[in-house]
Amino acid sequence: MNRASFYGNTIGYSDTSEESSDEDELLLRAELREQEQRALNDLDMAMNAPVVFCIRTYVDFDGLLNGLDAPIPTKVISFSAKEFIQVKRRFDQNWWIGRLVREDAPVGFIPSPTKLETLRHSMQTNLSQLLLSEALNVAASTGNSTGGGKSGSISGASGSVAHPSGKGGAWPAALANGNVPPANDKRVFFGNGISKTNEPAILNLGVSLPDMEPEKTAAQAVPTLASTLPTTPKKKPFFKKGYTGPPYELVPNVRPIVVVGPALKGYEVTDMMQKALFDSLKRYFEGRLIVTRAQTDVSGWKRLNVLLNMDKKALTDRTRGRQMITALEIQREMERIFDLATSMQLLVLDNDTINHPHQIAKSSLAPIMVYIKISSIRVLQRLIKNR
């Protein structure tokens, strides 16, 4: 084979590879355009679509930083922890379509739990790699600065020390200021200012003698990561420190209203004031309001965790029968409230056992608490006595 034919075949192969890369790029652009068009159609359909379910967030999400791989990056919704989102459609495994429960909030893309878990894993991996690279860089720079002192000379027998003003290498300021050990002192000073013979040493010397201590390699310096890394300003974490639970919690489509105060349930003053509030709500939201009375004490919602964490042995234990029945009744009542909320009407929940917001505020019902309060304690006491 001659040289011309050889090079001619090479040029042909390169042209073929360039054509294939151009075709792949065109196909990729076509797929992206098709996906963007489908995303726009789904957003238009979701504008008037009913709410499928509602969630409460437990993490912060910035759509500008973490939504670049979304079908339409400009339509990604950012949110903070303890906000509520109405989900209307499922676009794919990583993205949902919905809106924040806020006045005039736009419809956009919301990350699914799978997407948030992938994002958390990638951030943890990148952080560990960054810390490792910084540790190796600091260890290498420390080794170079320590090795640079080999030009100086110290002789323990004669007591001669190379001064920064002399021809020797540069030594720390502790020696330059006159803090020179005596001539017969043969102690070895380490980086932490402790002598090898447990005798008093010059504090904050910050250098080890290269003739008496071998230099540390980068691999040996990695365990001292916490002490060698420079202090950097802490960034706001994506997930709360120590939080390992799910990023979302399912809540009713319409958060129920729970009224408490001014006194305990059962007092006439409490019943009269709450009844007056219920009557005014019925007149103002006529045809759009549901007032329901809880058939079970939903303030014991924490018992549901006991029911979920029971093993087979505990389920067959007769002594826990009443506890299981109570938990099942609470679960059934909460499911009934969830079903009422699917009508997207204002929901008012009346319960005789709820006297304080903390009894139900952190439950999955996520209620809107209305607290009736009388500022003057004397007036409240007089009303309770007279009524």
From TrEMBL:
* Residues covered by region (Disordered): 1-21, 142-168
Stated name of the protein: Guanylate kinase/L-type calcium channel beta subunit domain-containing protein
* Cellular component terms (Gene Ontology): voltage-gated calcium channel complex
Using the record's annotation, list all stretches that form the Guanylate kinase/L-type calcium channel beta subunit domain.
Answer: 254-387
Keywords, comma-separated and alphabetical: Phosphoprotein
The answer, when asked if Phosphoprotein is one of the entry's keywords, is: yes
Transmembrane segment boundaries: none
Species for this entry: Hymenolepis diminuta (Rat tapeworm)
Question: Which Gene3D superfamilies does this chain map to?
Answer: P-loop containing nucleotide triphosphate hydrolases (3.40.50.300), SH3 Domains (2.30.30.40)
One Pfam short name: Guanylate_kin
Which GO-annotated molecular functions does the record name?
voltage-gated calcium channel activity
